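Exercise 7b. C-alpha cells:
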C-alpha cells in the first residue's frame, strides 16, 4: 500500500510539474505575442512621428520669417494701446458738447431727389399687382 501511495504521490507531483511547465510556456508565448504586437504599433507611431517632425521643422522655418514682422506689430500695438486713454479723453470732451437728439427743421435729402430702386422689379416682386410695381418703376427709400 505504501508503494501505491508513493506512486500516486509521484504521479501527482509529475502532474503538477508538467502543468507548471505548460503554464509557464503559455504565459511566455502570450507575452511574446504581446511584445510583437506592441513593437508593430510602436513602429507605426515612430513613422508618424517622423512625418510630424518634418512638418514641425517646416513650421519653424516659416515662423522664423514671420517673427520680425510680429515684433513690429507688437511695438505698434503698444503705441496704440498707450494712446487709447488720450483718444478716449478727447472723445469724451467731444461728446459732452453734442446733443443726443438734435432738433432739425427738415430731413436731409439727397441733391438729386428721392432715390429709387428697381431691385424688387428685377427679382419679380410686385406688391401692388400693377405693372411697374405701383411706384412708376421706383421705390422711395427716403420717407417723409
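Sequence design result:
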Amino acid at each position: 500500500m505504501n508503494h501505491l501511495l508513493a506512486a500516486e504521490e509521484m504521479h501527482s507531483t509529475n502532474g503538477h510539474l508538467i502543468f507548471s511547465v505548460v503554464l509557464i510556456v503559455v504565459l511566455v508565448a502570450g507575452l511574446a505575442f504581446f511584445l510583437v504586437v506592441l513593437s508593430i504599433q510602436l513602429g507605426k507611431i515612430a513613422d508618424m512621428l517622423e512625418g510630424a517632425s518634418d512638418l514641425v521643422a517646416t513650421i519653424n522655418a516659416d515662423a522664423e520669417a514671420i517673427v520680425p514682422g510680429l515684433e513690429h506689430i507688437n511695438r505698434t500695438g503698444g503705441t496704440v494701446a498707450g494712446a487709447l486713454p488720450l483718444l478716449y479723453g478727447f472723445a469724451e470732451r467731444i461728446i459732452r458738447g453734442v446733443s443726443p437728439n438734435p432738433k432739425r427743421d427738415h430731413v436731409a435729402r439727397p441733391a438729386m431727389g428721392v432715390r429709387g430702386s428697381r431691385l424688387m422689379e428685377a427679382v419679380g416682386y410686385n406688391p401692388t399687382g400693377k405693372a411697374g410695381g405701383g411706384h412708376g418703376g421706383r421705390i422711395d427709400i427716403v420717407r417723409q
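Instructor comment: Confidence is low (pLDDT under 50) at residues 133-140. The longest helix spans residues 2-96.
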